[in-house]
Amino acid sequence: xxxxxxxxxxxxxxxxxxxxxxxxxxxxxxxxxxxxxxxxxxxxxxxxxxxxxxxxxxxxxxxxxxxxxxxxxxxxxxxxxxxxxxxxxxxxxxxxxxxxxxxxxxxxxxxxxxxxxxxxxxxxxxxxxxxxxxxxxxxxxxxxxxxxxxxxxxxxxxxxxxxxxxxxxxxxxxxxxxxxxxxxxxxxxxxxxxxxxxxxxxxxxxxxxxxxxxxxxxxxxxxxxxxxxxxxxxxxxxxxxxxxxxxxxxxxxxxxxxxxxxxxxxxxxxxxxxxxxxxxxxxxxxxxxxxxxxxxxxxxxxxxxxxxxxxxxxxx
Length: 316
Description:
CATH class of the largest domain: Alpha Beta
Distance between the termini: 26 Å
Low-confidence stretches: none
Number of domains: 2
Radius of gyration: 26 Å
Number of helices: 10
Strand order of the largest sheet: 3-2-1-4-6-5-7
Structural class: alpha/beta
Order of helices and strands: EHEHEHEHEHEHHEHHH
């Protein structure tokens, strides 16, 4: 099979028939063999009934329904598990992503050798204050932290080689950072393509301003897990040693200062009367706590089911 298209949908009943017909037209014009998997993420507007009708009328369309709303990452995770196309596309269900972009993105994967191609909504049709400006700040931060030079990391329209989606795990709200997950899994040839971005035709956006704060926190979490997920003691132990060293230096300073003053007959304060003593004590306690956190983290990491999970590309 040439192409699989995964469409997470939450209360998008009105747009689904039009989107399905649009995808079918593009596939037929280019002669692709394909499948479309629409994941109903706990919709309450009758989207599942529409998906059932579409699947009944077109054998290329399949549906998956969640009992409640789990979020986009869960929809993509389940979709990635099930699809079998050589090139896998993800796109939003709101008609803001154009299926006409699929042939060129497919060519970039199959002919130019990209592992992942991300859409770039170069000319967004969203509100400049609530969407465009925060999006630019978010993407600038993501580029700096991940080292991936994408203008629009969170664009819903993406193309992947099948091997990519079978080797990454999307959870929580990590769908925003799939290119980073792919890079950490060893798929480093990541490109982007400017794509047409249309205004929402039906309904309203399901995302608020909180997604930018959550996105930044998720990025910090992902960055930490990538660097220290398998060896947490390298982080906690290093910082624990630093705290011990700071506490030790403070303690030596207090004692030496007292002895020097005492030797010269200068008035001095008792060690326990000095604020620096308590700062030294706090530093030592923090060092102990960080070491304990590192030991606990190592125990959790060693008992993890994927502690020896490695992505192998070839074997002879």
